[in-house]
Batch of 2 targets.
Target 1
Amino acid sequence: MAQLEVDNIRTAYGLSKVLFGVSLTVEPGEVVALVGRNGVGKTTTMRSIMGMAPPQEGSIRWIDRDITGIPVHHVAKLGIGYVPEDRRIFPELTVWENLDIGRRPPMDGGDGWSEEQVFELFPDLKDIQERKGGVLSGGQQQMLTIARSLMGNPKLLLLDEPSEGLAPIVVESLRDRIQMLKTGGLSIVLAEQNLDFVLFLSDRVHILEKGEVVYTGTPAELRDNPDVQTKYLTV
Amino acid sequence: MLAIGVEAMSMLSNPTFLFYQFMNSISLGMNLFIIATGLTLILGVLRVINFAHGAFFMFGAYVCWSTVTFLGGAVGSFWLGVVAAAVVLGAMAFVIERGLLRYLYGREHLTQLLFTFAIVLIVGDVAKMIWGTDQYNVPYPHGLGGAVDFGFAKYPSYPLLLCVIGLVVAVGMWLALSKTRWGRIIRAATQDREMLAALGMNVPLVYTGVFVIGSALAGIGGALAAPRVAVSPGMDATIIIECFIIVIIGGLGSLWGSFLGALALGFVTMFGTVIFPDWELVLAYILMLGLLLWRPWGLFGHEEEEPH
């Protein structure tokens, strides 16, 4: 059975419907990408999984239980980490304090992520521990948001547009770090506009259009299908 | 008339009087700070403008009077009264937050304002049912009825102790907020509560905790004020306005802002009434207006973004 099973969810903000029956599954250690243009429902899918925008219909199963509509902090405690699009670090807290807020021991015991390990993965953060989150560069903030989530020892990371607004060289370095996390066994749902980033990292790609999954394939299949790319991804 | 009276001039040239007013300003300021810091904490985290904070202050003063009276003014009864005020107000706050306020967080400010105003009326009436409309006096605690000799002048012990307690509360709060994990969580809650929840933190529990602590501070402030004022109905109305002035001067949600704001209000009150007696009632507002013209977000505040 899949680790995460999103089944036919429909989510609306008030009267404005965003998702019209999205389904996806994530196996342990898998990177599943959600791609598509702006406003097709990638972020809403993640917010639905996280419990921030509970779906009106459909269900979300995590490992062996139904987590549809449970409080956000319960979802997080069950091992799902969320790295939002706009990063949302705590601007008035230092880098170290931001990491400390995220700290939670692993659910199944054992050693989890420590600051040292996080700094090994993101060495840039090590020298700026005392700096306030609000003054960091975009790249540093993105690293910090991921690092902060890792401190909670998630089994699945929801990564929303991690490469957005970052310089190409930073994007490349970020991509390699995420690859390392994948190699370490972390499952990831990745929403991205940057197709190269997606093709490099993911095991499966879902294309969303107007709140529905319209295409599912492997990165290789998508790479060799320019028609689909033009139809759903070209701006 | 704005002219400084001859009488005021002669008073201000008297060093003993100056010292006395100086200390009075700090003492009043510190008492106000203890109350206002609770209000600003609640405002910063819950984003609820709690009009009932003044009523909580009044209730704290009554609880202290009852404790002292019940124990026949025994040694230590006053300090037990302070603890009792904190416990009673904390418990009341717990019930109010869990039972009612919690359902209003998503609503607009006007609804919350009306709700806290209802609490003002209810708490005020409950106080009248329990204590009537009489005025009570709480004596200075044992051993603090005298004065401390500074060599050049004497100053009464109890108001002096208030200065110390205010400072201890300020430093204690600062340490708790900046050096403990709970403090970091509270500060994070003022910045982005949804993200805090996404990191596995039980935000509603943080809210309850902050409302309880903030309200307990109002109760403690009321108990500590009891020996310096007449404990009577209506004492909630003045204090809530003073607290709002302090919070606005200091910047919403700022600990040191409310500390400086409380001191500023203490000085304006104590010296203003001597120098411009005719303007006594408006001086605090002039202070607030002047400061807002200079810094619209208060001393330590910053431009508000819509919080998540």
Target 2
Amino acid sequence: MPASMMQHSLDGVMGLTGVRAGAQRRWQKTGWPDHRAEQWRFTRLSGLQKVDLRFAESAAITAENQEFSAAMPDNAAFLSFSNGVFDQASLDNLPKGVKASLLDGDEATLLALSELVPQSHPISDLSLAAMTSGIHLEISGAVEIPIVLAFTGDDNSLSAHPVVSIKINDGASVVISEWHRSNVGLSAPLMAIEVGKKARLDYAKVQQDSAASTHLSATGLKLGDDSIFDGFQISVGGKLARLETHITLAGENADCTLSAIYLGRSSQHHDITTNMNHLKGHCLSNQVIRGVLDDKARGVFQGKVHVAPDAQKTDGQQMSRVLLLSRKAEADAKPELEIYADDVLCAHGATIGELDETQLFYLASRGIDGQTARGMLISAFLDDAIDSIKHDGLSAMLRPITTAWMTAVDLNSDGEL
Amino acid sequence: MAPLLEIKDLHASVGDTPILKGIDLIINTGEIHAIMGPNGSGKSTMSYVLAGRDGYEVTGGDILMNGESLLEMEADERARAGMFLAFQYPVELPGVGGMSFLRAAVNARRIDAGEKEVDQLEFVKMVRAKAKHLNINDDMLKRAVNVGFSGGEKKRYEILQMALLEPALSVLDETDSGLDVDALKVVSEGVNLLRDPQRSMLVITHYQRLLNHIVPDYVHILAGGKIRRSGGKELALEVEESGYAGINDAA
């Protein structure tokens, strides 16, 4: 068991009962994964173990959420977390069809949540035990107004553990985006989402935490019969970020997209880990992953597609492509297919490459400067993933983020540092 | 007044292999020059060296445009200064929309010249007008750059870019390669429309047939990395008759 200041302080979380007490016991037994844990081979947390972080407790709701509004659809409803603490005043913003409650003390909902999130997982256990704030949303009918879960923070000596559980009732539909712009030491959101029969969720997660932050999230989704999940993640912020998503296709005919983009520079580390678990037949899953790495940044994609014996006629697609803009950048891809049904269509692929010199010369020969030319080619590369988003509002929200990343500093032209 | 382009004792290598071994050439404003030569004579290398492609290293001599050396200029700077290369094999840019590509190219030059950027509506009109002469329809303009284009479409698209960018010097690298007779005619007519006393062209080709359509003022024979003979348009016909055999010896 690795030594960790965080581990000691979890010992100090007293008086937990039920599900959270169980999570606390598991965490205390296993703690942070060390270098021998296969799932954490490419993303080491040794740096985190040395940092002394306090669990966030009190809310200091800042005006930071204003900055989200500009990038959002006019009518979005904000549910705000600051330093991991939920701002109860934001409940006034709830659109019709959304019911909210607090998780604290709601043992039945906590139990359901604990079964949806990734199992035997450090973030599941730690954030459930340390839960800074927890809310539960229940969605009914067609919710017209997009919901934005906005996470901010201003204290980098804290570790924030917001927990959100969302139940989308049969036939309901909703657009949810999870937007992180925190400056806390560790941001460890735990999300559990259940999409009911014939329900639809359009979802985008934006990770734009501050350059000094670590972001480790665990998200569990369960999709019912004939449901649609159209999900997208973009990871641009943080010093180290791992966005881990486990999806269980638990009903027939579910249609699941989970695409992702990561953009890394300086010595950032981005990790996209997905686990697509096909339990029932006739389901579709599609993942388009695109990474761009500059300077000494590192990117990891681990994607597992598991097809159970009963999941006949599964169509599972996964494609990861990474562009390295610098010779010192590094990417790892670990796609895995595990298939136990015999009548399935599954494919995966992973490529790692550089910008094409011939294409760059063609653009230069038309008078287009190197920075602009590289931006054009990178945009084209990322569009493959952004184009997989079906909700226009969400794709319009995400494009400025990639554009801002490309114009923020000079993109390396030749890998020299 | 300095000539538009002056190539002085140009030596260039690709990797460790010397390809150009002392080229001298002067192109004045308004002139059309053709460079003919057998395979491996250094024709394409010459076009890349002029355009400033990485990996094509000038090891001696100089290239002057309007009296100023191009050697220290990057490819994009040369292009904005009025150099245009029509590629032998135009490059596909998947995901890069044709119209935004064309507009970026036109605006790059305008910004450099201190002119106003062209707005989108005005630009669409401008492109349509020039595309018409080259049988380029809206569908082709909407596609990603060169993606899914036939050989002939790619060459016409090169000439469209040339028409939009109005370069002082156009280098046409084997523009006839891969074209059938009809396509060759369309491309040549497009090029001829751009003939102008203010513009010069360097037409690089293996075969004489292109020069029936784009009639040059001067013809140079390149072989073994050097210009072996220069003359008027009749020199192209002579090559057509007797081939390149013996050219090397003639030097």
